[in-house]
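Example for tutorial group B:
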């Protein structure tokens, strides 16, 4: 049984990655329905949170059906991160996660996210201060290092554990790689081999099929995997991995009717959370993902992204089901997964 402090997550937990403009409550709802064991909010700016910025505070919304859920924070100031963590704790998350991995310029160039990989002592100091300030478990998500010459994750893992974190997730790329190239799990495996490391270690990067998840478990000994890009438009990847773990066989791809039904649930949750107008607008970014790989879907997708009425959207989904039901129209799980900038 894998535990984060007193939080039990199962034998090989599957985590949904925190992804900006993706991992909101509606998306988390469908991923939870499909078997995600632990999920995170979109990453939240500590500066925005202490200023009570609407975009930041709304990301604190947590619903009971999502639990266990972690709130992820990023920032460059120790004092501001402490204040933000205390605000986040009031939202009653199951844990607080610190982002030391975001590589984008807007974050890293301000000394936050992956920038802390250039200063491990400062990273440890910030982490310890946050751990001491809150009552909930604190975890960290980070990368292998800043660049190829400074892959210092093994040192960072020890320092972070000493600072009091209860679990560590490592994305198998450096900051310099951004989201390009292949994830390297070798150093993640070395962390697990270190007898000093006693906290759960989760791996992240390029997991888009059940076989890949099982392979990294066997080869690198990770306690679980975090899935990002491959879950977008493909939330059933969680149940597929669990089925492979228990039965040793792959499930067939979801039929078009199931894709449409999950899309409906996602739409309904989006409207419940942000209202009918904004909920429909924000759902538009997801339609292509749910039906990626379906031959001839473009005209229907164009209708979905221009329609502003939920009843009409559901009618379009009905037409899609009628048009494609029973046909072998879907590509592989990996091809259907959204290939965006997050993982």
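The residue assignment follows.
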């Amino acid at each position: 049984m894998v535990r984060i402090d007193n939080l039990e997550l199962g034998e090989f937990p599957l985590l949904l990655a925190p992804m900006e403009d993706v991992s909101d409550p509606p998306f988390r709802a469908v991923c939870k329905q499909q078997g995600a064991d632990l999920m995170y909010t979109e990453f939240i700016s500590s500066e925005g949170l202490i200023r009570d910025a609407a975009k930041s505070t709304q990301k604190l919304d947590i619903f009971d059906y999502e639990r266990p859920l972690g709130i992820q924070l990023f920032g460059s100031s120790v004092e501001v991160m402490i204040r933000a963590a205390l605000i986040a704790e009031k939202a009653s998350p199951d844990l607080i996660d610190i982002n030391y991995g975001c590589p984008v310029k807007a974050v890293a160039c301000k000394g936050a996210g992956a920038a802390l990989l250039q200063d491990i002592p400062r990273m440890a100091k910030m982490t310890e201060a946050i751990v001491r300030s809150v009552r909930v478990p604190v975890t960290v998500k980070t990368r292998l290092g800043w660049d190829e010459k400074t892959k210092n994750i093994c040192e960072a893992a020890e320092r972070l554990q000493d600072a009091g974190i209860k679990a560590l997730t490592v994305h198998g790329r450096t900051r310099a790689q951004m989201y390009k190239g292949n994830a390297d799990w070798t150093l993640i495996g070395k962390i697990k081999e270190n007898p000093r490391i006693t906290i759960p270690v989760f791996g992240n990067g390029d997991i888009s099929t059940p076989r890949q998840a099982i392979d990294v478990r066997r080869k690198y000994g990770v306690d679980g995997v975090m899935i990002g890009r491959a879950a977008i438009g493909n939330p059933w990847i969680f149940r597929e991995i669990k089925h492979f773990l228990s039965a040793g066989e792959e499930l067939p791809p979801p039929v078009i009717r199931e894709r449409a039904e999950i899309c409906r649930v996602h739409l309904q949750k989006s409207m419940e959370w942000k209202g009918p107008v904004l909920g429909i607008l924000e759902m538009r970014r997801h339609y292509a993902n749910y039906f990626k790989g379906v031959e001839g879907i473009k005209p229907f997708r164009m209708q979905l992204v221009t329609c502003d009425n939920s009843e009409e959207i559901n009618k379009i989904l009905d037409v899609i089901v009628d048009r494609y039901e029973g046909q072998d129209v879907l590509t592989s799980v990996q091809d259907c997964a959204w290939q965006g900038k997050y993982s």
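The longest helix spans residues 256-290. Compare this with the pattern of hydrophobic and polar residues in the output above.
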